[in-house]
Specification:
β7 and β8 form a beta hairpin. This protein is 29% helix and 33% strand.
């Protein structure tokens, strides 16, 4: 089963602790720092479209791109329900193609962590560079090495709600710096019975130095790295890192 296809039905239920409006405003501020007031942008790895909706509310022409058809179906329903106009595309962000250059590309909530090799990360950066107009910018965030290795590591987690529950077992490959997440979900159906399904996810704990070097190798300049929704340098125990890279 492709990651996120089954999860799309309950993803928003367990992601309700994210303030997507605030997160979108931070991304706008990041892009303004690069001198970009985006009229057109790509939301790479858009998932269920919560960031896509928030970014499009301000009038920007947004294309949400995701490799999961299940996520895109939920995103399409969200756009209809919210009355917000944006385009959606079923596409691997490492092969991103746009009909005309955009002002910016963003990738929120760990999309780059799911790219497990330097080749895959650089392919995304290369595709983003090609999609962005000169003077535009790329902005994205990752879960930090500290978070993935020290806080999640080989841990076991679980959560139970009235509609659904999950059991989450992690395994850390220290040599590859890859965290494997085996997640079992139990979702209550209309008849009161629970449907069980499993998903396997892998994320790599990229370092800020690696990502900066790969960005520069693909032609980006003036790369900046910040702590979680701040404009300060990240601390040693920062859980999330934000990157801003200019396309000259």
């Amino acid at each position: 089963m492709q990651s996120y296809d089954a999860l799309s039905a309950v993803y928003d239920l367990f992601a309700d602790d994210f303030d997507h409006a605030k997160w979108a405003e931070y991304y706008r501020a990041l892009l303004r720092r690069a001198g970009v007031e985006p009229q057109s942008l790509v939301d790479a790895g858009c998932g269920t479209g919560r960031m896509t909706v928030e970014l499009a509310r301000e009038g920007a022409r947004v294309v949400g791109v995701d490799i999961s058809e299940g996520m895109l179906r939920v995103a399409a329903e969200r756009l209809r329900r919210e009355g917000v106009r944006a385009q959606l595309a079923h596409e691997d962000m490492c092969r991103l193609r746009v009909p005309r250059p955009v002002d910016a590309v963003i990738c929120a909530c760990d999309g780059v962590n799911y790219l497990l090799s330097a080749e895959r990360v650089r392919a995304f950066f290369r595709a983003a560079h090609a999609a962005i107009r000169p003077g535009g910018a790329l902005a994205f965030d990752v879960s930090s090495r500290y978070k993935l290795e020290r806080l999640l590591g080989d841990g076991f987690f679980g959560e139970e709600r009235e509609e659904a529950a999950y059991l989450w077992q992690n395994r850390l490959d220290k040599k590859r710096r890859v965290l494997r997440m085996d997640i079992t979900f139990f979702v209550r159906e209309a008849d009161g019975r629970y449907r069980r399904f499993q998903e396997e996810h892998e994320q790599r704990a990229h370092s800020a130095a690696e990502l900066t070097a790969w960005l520069e190798a693909e032609g980006f300049q003036n790369v900046e790295v910040f702590g979680d929704q701040t404009f300060d340098a990240p601390g040693a125990e920062e859980k999330r890192l934000h990157f801003l890279a200019r396309r000259p």
